[in-house]
Each structure stands twice: as structure tokens, then as C-alpha cells.
Amino acid sequence: MTAATVLVAGGAGYIGSHMVNALQGAGHHAIVLDDLSRGHRDLVVSGSAFIHGSIQDTALLDQIFTDHRIDAVMHFAAHSQVGESVTAPLIYYRNNVAATVELIAAMVRHDVRRFIFSSTAAVYGEPETTPITENHPLRPANPYGVTKMTVERMLSDCDTAHGIKSICLRYFNAAGADENGRIGERHDPETHLIPLVLTVATGQRDRISIFGTDYPTPDGTCLRDYVHVTDLSRAHLLALDALLGGGDSAVYNLGNSKGHSVREVITLARKITGHPIPAEEVGRRAGDPANLVAGSDKARKELGWQPHYEQLETIIETAWQWHRREAHHLVS
């Protein structure tokens, strides 16, 4: 496949930075656009063009599309904290929906017709059945999920009206870090289970909380489908190849199709880190489904996607390598 120039919105964030790394490795040219409100400049791998700015800045977008022959756009610039979306919904509608309108409008003005969207399993809400397939009803339970669903619908409408071909990739629980330890997960505040557990092992937290132990699962704690961030990046590369090859718009789930409990994550983290990782059992959090596991057969069949990091232990090991490095830099 011919090398492409890809505008990566939000390329200084967790998943976006891994995507930029993957694009470089595949011989593509990445142009990173990030306002650094939640991203980190040091996570952008060297050799990538970096532009400090927002996808809401229409003049900047016009300048980028004028100065560069953009073949495709990848969008990782959404806010993604479920709890925050409930307490501050307007921030999410402004950043995740209104700003995306400006990005797509700039694509229309400059005749760019390929778009790969970082979506989420949150569009499904409380699952009726598991594993969850792409034809499951979309009933998001929080504003974050609603904003992602809204953009998916907008992309479908823009395909009809403007011929923009899009692939929406619905992630389940992104986890892990690049194997070389150069980039990884850094959020403030952190809300994801694996990094929270590992920051107990690095001494940055005293203990981990287990929210609910009475779920209808084998050990009473929630089950989640963890998918390695590098495998997510590979799926985006395959989606890019599909669109560059003239492929049609599509939606795919991305997960390992295996559920792992909160207790299982903590037990494996104790084994990998050698740290006792104290845990306290507390009440359920509102809105936490008992079981979220992806049905990813469609992505495997149509995109040829095959996760390389299917074992939870391997996923946690790569994350641990990154978090040890981060903790060392904080104290040095």
C-alpha cells in the first residue's frame, strides 16, 4: 500500500500516540494535531510533525489541509471520562460533538474523504447479551457514550451527503503500553483499573478500591474485555488500508472477546509486580454493567485483524514496564 499522509487529531494522547508510532512503523506520514489539554507532548514519537492547536480552530484546520495533502484523518481528540461526562456534559458535547463538526466540515471543504473514528463500547450501554456484537442496540448510559454515538450517526449522514467514507472502531477496555516502554498510559485524573492498580505497586497510591463484589459473575466483581493499545493501533492501520483501497464505511468492535474480573486483574498485578497491592471492597458504582465482552468476529473476518496480545498477563506486563519508568522519572 502506498504511504499515506494522515492527520492524527489527539495524537499526543494515550491511544493517539501509539497510533502515531504505528503509522511511522508502517511507512506512513503522521501529522499530529493536539491542544495538549489532556495530551502530552513528550508522548509524540520523534519524526512526526506536531501542530499545537484545536480541531475547533477552523482557520488552523484550513491551513493544515492547504499546506498538506491529507489522505485520511484519524480522530482521537475526544474527552473520555464517563464520570466527568455526567457532571459536566456540556464540556463533552462541545469537545466531542461540536468540535468534530468543525473537523469534518474542514474535510468537506478540502475534499478529504477518509475518516477513522475512535469510538467506544459505551455506545451500547447495559448489554442485553454478551458477547456484544455490532448489531446490538445502541443505548448509551452516559453523555460520553451519547457523544460517540452522535458522531457515528453524523459520519453516516456525511457519507450520504458528502461521500466521506468512515470506519468507526468501538474499543472495549484499552490497556497496556508499547513494548519498548517509550510511551504508555498517562491520565490526570486516572480512572482506568490497570494503571490504578499499578500505581499502588509504584507507591503512588495506598490501595485499590473494588467497587462491588456482588455482581452475577464467577467471583462477584465486574468482568471487562481488555484489548492492548498496540492491537488497537494495528486495527486502525488495517482500517486505513481498507479505506485507501476504496473500501466502504463500516463499524467494528475491538476486543479480545474474553472477560476478566477486577479480582483477576489485581491478582495478576500482584504476581507481575511482586507487590501486595492492598485492596478494599466498597459498594457498587452507579452504572457499572456486570459483564462487558466484545464480539470481534467482524473485525477479524473483514479487516483481517488478529490481536497479538490476547493474554491479560502480557497486557499488564507491558503496562507495568511503562509505569515503573514513569514512577522513576517522578522521583529522579
Keywords:
three-stranded mixed sheet; UDP-galactose 4-epimerase, domain 1; alpha/beta; 14 strands; 10 helices; 332 residues; 2 domains; Rossmann fold
Q: What is the number of domains?
A: 2
Described by the principal axes of the CA atoms, the overall outline is globular
Q: What's the order of the H and E elements?
A: EHEEHEHHEHEEHEEEHEEHEEHH
Low-confidence stretches: none
| Classification by helices and strands | alpha/beta
Radius of gyration: 19 Å
Largest sheet: 7 strands, parallel
Query: What proportion strand?
Result: 15-25%
Distance between the termini: 44 Å
How are the strands of the largest sheet arranged? 3-2-1-4-5-6-11
User: Superfamily at the CATH H level of the largest domain?
Assistant: NAD(P)-binding Rossmann-like Domain
Q: Count the DSSP helices.
A: 10
Here the CATH topology of the largest domain equals Rossmann fold
Please state the average pLDDT score: 95
Layout of helices and strands:
Blueprint: E1 5-9, H1 14-25, E2 29-34, E3 49-52, H2 58-67, E4 72-75, H3 82-87, H4 89-109, E5 114-120, H5 143-162, E6 165-171, E7 173-175, H6 193-201, E8 208-211, E9 223-224, E10 226-228, H7 229-244, E11 250-254, E12 260-261, H8 262-273, E13 279-282, E14 291-292, H9 297-303, H10 312-331
Parallel strand pairs: 1-2, 1-4, 2-3, 4-5, 5-6, 6-11, 7-10, 8-13, 9-14
Antiparallel strand pairs: 9-12
Explain how this protein is built:
By secondary structure, this protein is an alpha/beta fold. The protein folds into 2 domains: 5-174 and 228-254, NAD(P)-binding Rossmann-like Domain (Rossmann fold, 3-Layer(aba) Sandwich); 193-224 and 257-331, UDP-galactose 4-epimerase, domain 1. 40% of the residues lie in helices and 17% in strands. The strands form 4 sheets. It has a 7-stranded parallel β-sheet with strand order 3-2-1-4-5-6-11, sandwiched between helices. Strand 5 (114-120), helix 5 and strand 6 (165-171) form a beta-alpha-beta unit. 45% of the residues are buried. The model has no long low-confidence stretch (mean pLDDT 95).
